[in-house]
């Protein structure tokens, strides 16, 4: 009854207050949407940055890991050679595998190589 009269009224009869409230609500809604949109953009940008940084770090660590694995292989070969050399030298057998190798000279060369490697880093 009273509501029927309200809906039958034209906007001029309702007054400016109803229109103003709707505009205020629309403006408030628009501001909230705009803030949310900016927050979403910022969040997505940060997420992409973190993903890119992680990807870069993973690649760097993979390269470092590969280099370290190569170093382990080289050091393992060196260790095996030195073990064999020591065993031949220590056993003092009749037919040594490393006959004619000056152990003192060889160890000096190994020490020089280590110094050169460390100084180049």
TrEMBL record:
PROSITE patterns with a match to the protein in the record: BZIP
Domain of life assignment: Eukaryota
One GO process term, biological-process aspect: DNA-templated transcription
Region (Disordered) residue spans: 1-54
UniProt cross-references to Pfam families, sorted A to Z: bZIP_2
One GO MF term attached to the UniProt entry: RNA polymerase II cis-regulatory region sequence-specific DNA binding
Main location, first listed in the record: nucleus
Skewed-composition ranges (Basic and acidic residues): 28-41
GO cellular component terms listed in the entry, alphabetical order: nucleus
Annotated keywords: DNA-binding, Nucleus, Transcription, Transcription regulation
Similarity comment: Belongs to the bZIP family. C/EBP subfamily.
Protein name as it appears in the record: CCAAT/enhancer-binding protein homolog 2-like
Originating species: Vanessa tameamea
């Amino acid at each position: 009854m009273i509501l029927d009269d309200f809906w039958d009224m034209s906007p001029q009869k309702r007054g400016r207050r109803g229109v103003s409230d709707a505009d205020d609500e629309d403006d408030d809604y628009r501001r909230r949407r705009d803030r949310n949109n900016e927050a979403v953009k910022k969040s997505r940008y940060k997420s992409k940055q973190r993903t890119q940084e992680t990807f870069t770090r993973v690649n760097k660590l993979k390269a470092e890991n590969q280099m370290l694995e190569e170093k382990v292989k080289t050091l393992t070969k060196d260790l095996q050679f030195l073990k064999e050399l020591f065993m031949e030298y220590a056993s003092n057998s009749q037919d040594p595998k490393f006959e004619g190798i000056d152990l003192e000279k060889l160890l000096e060369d190994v020490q020089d190589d280590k110094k050169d490697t460390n100084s180049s880093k």
